[in-house]
Amino acid sequence: xxxxxxxxxxxxxxxxxxxxxxxxxxxxxxxxxxxxxxxxxxxxxxxxxxxxxxxxxxxxxxxxxxxxxxxxxxxxxxxxxxxxxxxxxxxxxxxxxxxxxxxxxxxxxxxxxxxxxxxxxxxxxxxxxxxxxxxxxxxxxxxxxxxxxxxxxxxxxxxxxxxxxxxxxxxxxxxxxxxxxxxxxxxxxxxxxxxxxxxxxxxxxxxxxxxxxxxxxxxxxxxxxxxxxxxxxxxxxxxxxxxxxxxxxxxxxxxxxxxxxxxxxxxxxx
Length: 270
Description:
Blueprint: E1 4-5, E2 19-21, E3 26-29, H1 50-57, E4 64-68, E5 71-75, E6 84-86, E7 91-92, E8 108-110, E9 117-119, E10 132-134, E11 139-142, E12 156-158, E13 163-167, E14 186-188, H2 206-242, H3 244-269
Transmembrane segments: 220-243
Main location: membrane
Protein name: Leucine-rich repeat-containing N-terminal plant-type domain-containing protein
């Protein structure tokens, strides 16, 4: 069963919430800006804070499956050390709220397969402990923020199939991912083979572009030949099928020409 409707703002009151998974539903609307109130996701050192104490005081054992770093991981009592937010495969619209960057303890953030627009907030690069970030299959535009070069712990990264432009920031991590992580955009620079101009725009292959235009001209030549044949057929040949007087006159003309040719050949033979 898929959950419809919007994300209720009451979720922001859940201060101990560490793992929010609303993926694969029919949720629409915008991402609440009040997510920065999720205190448990805003703390980076959980071994010496109230969240760890809360988990310790409630010493029951529990399991959960989380999709992190592109794989399924099963967490038991260590779940209190994991923070993740998965809103993928919904119909969320609007921009990614910059308030998300306040969640400094996030290890995994997945907003893929939605209808999100606007630029990627530069402040997301401040979540330096991030291990998995997936913003693919949205309608995001602009550049990949330079601050993403600060994400040194990334093991899974995907911004494919958006409308991103410009040069991919240089870092120890961003160049280690496959080209598929950046596909479906207008990006340039390593790890892609497409080079950038001095302004950070992709270089257009003039030679290939010229061949493309030449191929286009050849295609139009073929089209004009076909159109000429069709027009000639309907103007000259088609009337012979539908107008009897034209057909009889045509055959008489052919017969006359044939007789003249026969006489000419006979004369030349003598």
